[in-house]
Amino acid sequence: MNKVTTSLWDAAEHLETKEDMAAYLEAAFEDGDPNLVIAALGDIARSKGMTNIARETGLGRESLYKSLSIDGNPEFATVVKVIQALGLRLQATAL
Fold first, then answer.
1. How many Å from the N-terminal Cα to the C-terminal Cα in the chain?
2. 27: Cβ contacts below 8 Å, ≥ 6 apart
3. Of the candidates 73, 39, 78, which has an alpha carbon nearest to the alpha carbon of residue 60?
4. For helices 34-48 and 18-31, what crossing angle results, to 10°?
5. Can you tell me whether residue 71 is helix, strand or coil?
């Protein structure tokens, strides 16, 4: 019998361009689950380097990891700072 090896899939390893990041975050918003949106934002921040994001936002790296996890509950100001540091923009559109 052949053994099958598996490994965890990490979205952060596949988010290479701003377009990838924007599409990933947009898909999370479309799902409608706020926890998923925050976790997706965390994945994107990790893909860019959490230390870099912490430096650009003026926030602590450890607190960003915690805030941007699936169980995190960041303030909206933190979300806005991270999105700006990533070079992304939030945009509202009519349904």
1. 53
2. 40
3. 78
4. 170
5. coil
Burial (CB count within 10 angstroms: exposed 0-12, middle 13-18, buried 19+), residue 40: buried
Q: Is residue 48 assigned to a domain?
A: yes
Domain total in the chain? 1
Domain that holds residue 23: 17-85
Please report whether residue 23 resides in a domain: yes
Sign of the CA dihedral running 47, 50, 53, 57? positive
Q: What angle do CA 62, 66, 67 make, to 5 degrees?
A: 115
Question: Rounded to an integer, what distance in angstroms lies between the CA atom of residue 80 and that of residue 78?
Answer: 5
pTM of the model: 0.87
Give the pLDDT means over successive 10-residue stretches in the chain (95 positions). Answer: 88 94 94 93 96 96 93 93 94 85
b (16+ CB within 10 A) / e for 6-38: eeeeeeeeebeeeeebbebbeebeeeeeeeebb
